[in-house]
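Need a sequence for this fold. Nothing fancy.
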């Protein structure tokens, strides 16, 4: 009996230690920031500053925001990857026909705390239109170190929903469409300071995006492709 009680006690202690270790690991893990584009007032808890007339639409997954490719954009006074020494940045979006050849659809930029102006340190998601299809162009700049990941050998149809992802692991910057690697390059990132974001255009209001954005997730660590944000099941959210 005593032996059985001892085994049970040891099992309880071991389980408690495992739970404690898991809790400590989760508590120490950097938390992701999720921005859902399901309204035109706030994004991720931040006021949405509108340019033009972006509008809410129904998607297979729930509400999304659509941009006309001419003068629609949303500006947010937050840089969710500020301070990150590595990161994973994911966007679920739908590029549409009729847009410009070059489009910037998501821009994170650092601001100088003394002047309030852009320092030039930035991260962007862009796309290029080739023969009525699109390819991913992602870019990052950090204190003189620049990386352009453009691969137009891999083209995708317009008018469908995709997840695009940029991953920086401290040495390499990689870009993905779905789970498919598009391009990679060495990159040196100095963690960026606080800043702001633009969606639907570049921060300086050019190269507008025609299409819709459903959600974005910014995680201050490098995720593996199997950890990427999945496309939600159709009808998972109320329209």
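Here you go.
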């Amino acid at each position: 009996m005593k032996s059985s009680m001892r085994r049970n006690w040891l099992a309880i202690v071991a389980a408690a230690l495992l739970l404690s270790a898991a809790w400590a690991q989760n508590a120490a893990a950097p938390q992701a920031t999720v921005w859902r584009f399901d309204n035109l007032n706030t994004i991720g808890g931040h006021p949405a500053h509108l340019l033009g007339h972006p509008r809410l639409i129904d998607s297979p997954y729930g509400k999304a925001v659509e941009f006309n490719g001419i003068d629609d954009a949303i500006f947010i006074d937050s840089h969710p990857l500020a301070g990150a020494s590595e990161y994973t940045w994911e966007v679920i979006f739908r590029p549409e026909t009729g847009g410009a050849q070059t489009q910037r659809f998501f821009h994170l930029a650092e601001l100088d705390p003394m002047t309030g102006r852009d320092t030039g340190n930035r991260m962007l998601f862009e796309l290029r239109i080739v023969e009525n299809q699109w390819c991913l162009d992602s870019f990052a700049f950090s204190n003189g170190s620049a990386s352009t990941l453009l691969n137009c050998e891999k083209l995708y149809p317009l008018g469908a929903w995709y997840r695009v992802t940029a991953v920086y692991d401290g040495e390499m910057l990689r870009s993905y469409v779905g789970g498919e690697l598009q391009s990679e390059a060495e990159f040196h990132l100095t963690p960026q300071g606080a800043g702001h974001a633009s969606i639907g255009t570049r921060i300086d209001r050019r190269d507008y995006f025609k299409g819709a954005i459903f959600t974005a997730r910014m995680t201050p660590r490098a995720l593996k492709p199997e950890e990427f944000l999945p496309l939600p099941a159709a009808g998972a959210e109320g329209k």
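For context: The chain has two domains: 1-30, 33-227.
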